[in-house]
Structure of 3-phosphoshikimate 1-carboxyvinyltransferase:
Amino acid sequence: MARPESSGAGSAPLFQRMAVIGLGLIGGSLARAVREKRLAARVIGADQRTDDLRAGVELGVIDEWAPSVAEAVQGADLVVIAVPVRAMESVLAEIQPHLSGDVLLTDVGSTKTSFVQAVESVFGCWPDWVIPGHPIAGSEKSGITAATADLFEKHKVILTPSEQGDTSKLRRLTELWAGCGAMVLTMPADRHDEVLAATSHLPHLIAFSLVDTLAGESDNLDIFRYAAGGFRDFTRIASSDPIMWHDIFLSNREAVLKVIDHFTADLAGLREAIDTGDGRKLLQVFSRAKAARDHFSKMLSGQAYVTTMSQKQVTFKLQPGGSVQGDIRVPGDKSMSHRSIMLGALAEGVTEVDGFLEGEDSLATLQAFRDMGVTIEGPDNGHVRIHGVGLHGLQAPRAPLYLGNSGTAMRLFAGLLAGQAFDTELTGDESLSKRPMGRVADPLREMGAVIETAEGGRPPLKIRGGQALKGITYRMPMASAQVKSCLLLAGLYAEGETVVTEPAPTRDHTERMLQGFGYPVTREGATARVRSGGKLTGGHIDVPADISSAAFFLVAASITPGADLTLRHVGINPTRVGVLNILRQMGADITVENEREVGGEPVADLRVRHAPLKGIAIPEDQVPLAIDEFPVLFIAAVCAEGQTVLTGAEELRVKESDRIQVMADGLAELGVKTTVTGDGIVIDGGQPMASGTVDSHGDHRIAMAFSVAALRATGEITITDCANVATSFPNFRELATAVGIQLSVEESGS
Ligand code: S3P
């Protein structure tokens, strides 16, 4: 985080006199950092141990020391209490009469409700100038001699201000911590204690307890002598300060007891599974835990899945020109991958999936089902084995289901979860949090669902369980496969018949796959119907390559002289082939070879060769059939001769980005003029594409479309914010470079 303007060398310090009560590792390190960065004009220390105070001055940790806490706080505009949590109350009582009128009082304790209680008991109320804090930093070393100015660098500091707190004081305290290099978050004190009980206090308790148990075994020497690295890593925290941890557990009693109870119940479950030879249960717990840990590592390493939480920036750099040659298979279909997990989980028996897309979006769906108690093995090279739990076998997840960037996951889940017995909350990343959910929430409410959305019908969605749904007859106002699928899934749980009519054909994977699982779905023209009371039977699903991912290469080959490329095993479901129809109408040379049916879906190999393209008026009936392919079709239009006109495509404005505007802006950066309309765009072909920097707005398909544009550009193209390419096409870079697109990837940030 950048250093605040109001602090640092050469500018006015944030505070005039900072008193630090307690010069241990944390108090000492904060004092040292504040002095070094000149965030306070003077830093005064107070501690029971005079030796530490003397050392503090000698080591340059503090400017001066005070003989008592009362003297330290007099005239101070910032007081930081850094004593053990159990000693907070007596320190507060001692300093209270001596605090100055405009003081900001904070602490650095590991538990926060205990500090709030201590403040209330001493002051008789909650003053708006008290802001509790907790830097999540530490070391196995303790004491002032271990204090370092960089202890908080890149660490989180949680502040738990009251709702009525003084906002200017909060801003100054935030700037102080940011000036020490920390990342500052705020949350309510009780939430802080729950989170820390689970993520820090319980692991410490287990480490202490495990080492203690093993140390008591008769062959303990052997146990420790032969301890492998894993044991050492796992128990490292058992050498932390016993007094401090004794304090923490007694201060955070309620939250810790709750999580210990959870853990001991789960541990007892594992014991019983081992005792009774219940391998299925062990596999379920272990694979769920492994997946959760991997998911967590991804969050920490900042992959696309959690772009809002990470600082990682992925930039594509493309050299102009290149060739398009080869024989490739793009990853599995995203829509079918989501549905294979959903229906496999709700089926009875085991479902084996091949060709599963291991992209962030479909992995989010997979993780969500694990969170609801479904055992899922894999994915392993596109192979997934789902141990279905039946339509009524899902369990309540313990936390909100995080669906990353995936609109499909959120909308389909809304329908599926509206009919469950338990409550759920669905959340997503920054882009998903802006997308409209009223289109599913409104008809679901008509069915009797109870769903709360954030303002403007946006996520998160809070879905109340235990509602009796009833079937409705619904005419969709927009052509959306997600809305249709959402209602059909809710229909599996609704009394009577659920009837959905679409204004134009949209992808029908839900209907086909339900039938593939043996669940009756009636389809007549634009209408699909389901009734509850049926069952799904597990089986095998072969997910073909995603035509939406193949589209980038269909255009790449079409616009590149000399190109000849074969794309294997591509799904050519008639509700998905708009891109083929549109490109062919523009003059593309695409042949469909080896047409066959695999698991209820038509599949073929597509051979595409360079051909001169011409602009067309895109038929509106093709729009829903090519809805995800327009970003790259716009690139085809730029390379075509004559004008291309798109109308009836307002849905493009509510995808992962406003794809009409973002494409127009990106093209403008490359010197290509377009005319944006409310529901489409007009592109005059034949305009040269120069070098430039394009902002993909975190939209995977925008990033990949401009990568294809480079084949015909005259200079280098830089595309920013590309991490989300991993949502649908994790190996895009590898395949693009394999065929001859000159793409390199740069990553920066944490
Ligand atoms: C999808 C439907 C489409 C599409 C999305 C996947 C699906 O969305 O854009 O990428 O799997 O059902 P809409 O239903 O909003 O058109």
The chain has 24 helices and 32 strands.
